[in-house]
Amino acid sequence: MSSLEQADLKKLPVRLVIAANSNSYTVFPALVYMVGLITGLNKDEAIWLLIWALPVAGTLFAAVGPYVFIKKLVENAFATNPGERASARLERILKIPRQMEVGLAIGSVLSILTVTAAPVVRFGKNLWLIPWTLVVVSLLVFLLMIQLRPGWERILRPYALAEFHKNPEAIPQGSGIFWVRQRWYLPYAFGVFVACTIATVTSVLLREGYNNFLHLREQMLGPVTPDQFLSLLDGAVAKMVSDALLPLGLLGSYLLVSAAFSAWQLSRYQTEAAQSVQTTVEALASGEPKLPEWVSTDEIGDLAAATAKAFGRLKAFSASLGESAHALRRSAEQLGLSTSKQTEALTHQATALQETQVTAQEIKQTSALTAQKAEGILQQTEKADQISRAGEAAIQQSLNGLQEIGEQVKEMARQIRNLDQRTRQIASITTTVKDLADQSNMLALNAAIEAVRSGEHGKGFGVVAREIRTLADQSIRATNNVRSILQDISTAIRTTVSMTEKGSEKVESSLIQVREFGNNITELSGIVRDNAASVRQITAAVTQQNTGITQIFQAVNDLSRLMDQTMVQLRTSDEALDLVRNVTDKVAAMSGESRSSTAPRPVARGTSVESN
Q1: Is the whole model's pTM more than 0.70, yes or no?
Q2: CA–CA separation, 400 vs 557, rounded Å?
Q3: Residue spans per domain, the chain
Q4: Contact criterion met (CB below 8 Å) for 174 and 95
Q5: 156 SS3 class
């Protein structure tokens, strides 16, 4: 055993102890509650139990004791004993989970005995409470162990599989309570759950009934009439039912959850076992057999062991079948050598002829494609010539149109400038009108003053002066409005003039570019005409070449048909050789051997010289 394996085995007891205490936080409250319920401890007595009795018993029987016990089991199971059976060590490893289940249950019972006896003796309780508590709580512990055993087997499975794969033909065998079989372990698990339920319900009812009996007895110490007795009895029964509901509900829920979890663990264990064996059987059916990744003491473990045994027999059969396949392959290789020698000369000829045919076919296709492309280029060249001529005419029309647009733009600019001058003249007139209105306003003001001086005789003249002043004010306002409008018009005219000048410049620039483009089109048109003449000459030459290549290709096809007839006869014997080799490969694949061919295959296998 290597140093790494020894170090791993040293950690194994710690892992098992941790797994054993993994569910203690769920079971510990229930166990303490049942001890307190059955023994009838009050608050102070329960506190004493938690402080003094539980730590001592827990340290001794839940930490130190289990570690020593599990370490001893592991050392004994993995020990190498000279002269023992091949499967003896594997059998000891497989027994560890069940031995832990029984041994830790006994240790827990001793712990419960200590925890129960301490308060009973100290506080003077009835000694019959000790065996009663021991039985009820022990059943809860055995139910817990059923949940923990699959986890312990999961931790130990890699070690058991490693031992099993060393000697798969050594089938582990055993019997007794440490060799778990599903035919008795599943009824045992169901019986533990039923016994836990009955014991728990009975304990709660007896404890509550006894407490209510003591209470009823105290109330009946004095004289009691029959009616009072019946009333007290009904009250005691009602109180007992009320007091029992909460403990029954809590403990019943705990038992249901615990039983469901146990059933789930067992079903998961069975599912993993079935899937492992199924994977092995599927691998065996697919032609890639492998040892099962499962070993256990139950019936599925027997099935896995039988599968491993079948794997060994299949391996021996595959070896025998492989030898036969090798012999058949050697015969096929000798036949292949003889056929190869016969066909080697014809193969070289067929290959050369095929290459010639392929080359001729490519030349023919290239020549035909060249003729088509040349004809297409000629058509495109003539079309390009027509397009270039139409382009020249269109560009000339565009030049004429742009020149006319330029003249129109210039004329528009001149008209807009004239309009700007007229607008300025109108602005000058409005300035004159405003000055006249200002003078009229001043004269009207003076006339009003003179009318005031004239007294009664100047009243009529004053009215006229006011009207004149009013008209002068309106004239000033209207003049101001007209001036504002004229200023806006003048601004718009200047903007339009600027835009017109820019447009005229762009038209001139466009005219220059179009003239240059027209010159390029004219040069391109000349080049296209020259190319059209050259393409016509090339098309005639390619057409003559295509005719000659067609005659050569026809001669090669006639020679290829003669070679095909010879190759068909050779392929008949070659196909027979392939059939023999395929049968050999299938037999070798069934035996698990890889194909190794030492004879060269015919070079021209599958070569076909087809005529076009």
Answers
A1: no
A2: 66
A3: 3-297, 316-590
A4: yes
A5: helix
Q: Are 66 and 160 in contact (CB under 8 A)?
A: no
Distance CA 217, CA 232 (A): 10
Q: What does the angle CA 525 – CA 527 – CA 529 come to, to the nearest 5 degrees?
A: 70
* pLDDT (mean) for 262-274: 87
How far, in Å, are 108, 277, 367, 405, 547 from residue 536 at the CA level?
111, 82, 16, 44, 17
pLDDT (tens digit per residue) in 183-223: 999 999 999 999 989 988 888 888 888 777 777 777 777 77
DSSP conformation letters of 49-78: IIIIIHHHHHIIIIIIHHHHHHHHHHHHHT
Question: Across the chain, what does the average pLDDT equal?
Answer: 77
Asked whether the beta carbons of 100 and 67 are under 8 A apart, the reply is no
CB 57, CB 111: distance < 8 Å: yes
- Cα 469 → chain centroid: 95
- The number of beta carbons lying within 10 Å of the beta carbon of residue 304 is 25
Residues 6+ apart with CB under 8 A from 583: 328
* Candidates 3.30.1140.32, 3.40.640.10, 1.10.287.950, 1.20.120.450; CATH matching 316-590: 1.10.287.950
Asked whether the CA dihedral 370, 375, 377, 378 is positive or negative, the reply is positive
Can you tell me the distance from the alpha carbon of 149 to that of 19, in angstroms, rounded to the nearest whole number? 9
The predicted-structure confidence for 396-417, as pLDDT tens digits, reads as follows 777 777 777 777 777 777 777 7
Cα separations in angstroms, 240 against 90, 206, 245, 248, 293: 55, 10, 9, 12, 56
Tell me the DSSP string of 568-597. HHHHHHHHHHHHHHHHHHHHHHHTTPPP--
Nearest CA among 247, 312, 235, 244 for reference residue 280: 312
Closest CA to 164 of 95, 89, 97: 89
Name residues whose C-beta falls within 8 Å of residue 518's C-beta, 6 or more positions apart in sequence: 392, 395, 396, 399
Tokens of 171: 């089938």
DSSP secondary-structure letter at 287? T
Taking a C-beta distance cutoff of 8 angstroms, is the pair 587, 577 a contact?
no
| Residue 72 confidence (pLDDT) above 90 | yes
